[in-house]
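Tutorial, part two.
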Amino acid sequence: MAGFTVIPALLSGSGGAARQLLVKPHRAREAAARRPQERTLFVLNLPPYCTQESVHRLFSQCGTVTSVELQDKPGPGAKSEAKKSKFFSRKPTEGYRVAYVVFKSPAGMKSALKPQTPWILSPSEHPVTTGLQKWIQDYRCSITDTEALQKEVDDFMKKHDQRVAAMEAQAGAEDGVPDEEGWVKVTRKGRRPGVPRTEARNLQAAQREKRKRQQRELLNFYSWQQQDAKREHIAQLRKKFEEDKQKIALMRADRKFKPY
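Running the prediction step on this input gives:
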């Protein structure tokens, strides 16, 4: 490939098929502090069993290596954010990968670009796990340690509760206090805070809505139901009218003068 230097690599010193590592100086449009272009080497065609430690040890024979970044494809890589959980961010390694190797000085990168004798990827003093042993190792790593997972969840919830408490304290302090321009920030906390929406209350509200919906759907759905409802309403009005007439007649009878 144009622009790349080929480094032959053998899995072990006993021979076998030689792999070719393709390397060239790293060039990017936007310079990154963690990848200085005069000291960073871009590596292609890394076997999937190569770890960050093995790549660091492999290129250390050319000079002091300060950092190694392994990625599935070329790119800026993940930004420096909060550390992700090892239980929820596992991603299996598939296929060959790329690496960005940063040397302490430009001389180390230049030494790696010179023609090389075959490198040993898995020397006897530092063997690399491959084949069936790697499958067994990946399977054992996939088994979740319940105690470590519980500890991580507890730590996360503790930090979450602290953040929520800090937000509530800040909201309470800002409640009713105007800012520099005279605006008052409206918060969730007021004179009559709402009822907490617990799971039981949510279930009760859903059941009430379901009953109301059923009543609306079944009441006066058919035309004959509407006609019956009108007749019943008129009959109730007539009955009430007759009852009121009787009450008025009794009241008038009670008001008559009876001397004897």
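Helices lie at 52-59, 106-112, 131-142, 146-174, 199-218, 223-254. In part three we will examine how such features are distributed along the chain.
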